[in-house]
Amino acid sequence: MTASVVHIASVPTDASQHPAASPYDRRLNGPLGIGRFGLYEVALPAGAATVPHDHRADGDEDAYVVVRGSGRLVVDGVETELSAGDAAGVPPEHERWFRAGPDGCTLIAVCA
Which residues of 66-90 are buried (b: 16+ CB within 10 A; e: fewer)? Predict the structure, then answer.
């Protein structure tokens, strides 16, 4: 197999690809030919939020890496400020969602 390369901006946003997806998600799996985990770029405008969700049913863990801007990761109602260069992981049983700060926030999310 050869490497797959895609320019992220060429991947359309689509909230229908995952039950917890927001309209700001770009699911990169298909274009990259990856099937063992979910890989998303989430580009939230200022104040926008993702959908609160957990992974009790499927047992998946989420990892987030903020690559631009800042925001708040909310896990079981507890807010943690994150900014570019920060990473966070959340176990399956906890409800989580993300809200962008005043300058927006772009993060990479891995669900496995």
Answer: beebbbbbbbeeeeeebeeebebeb
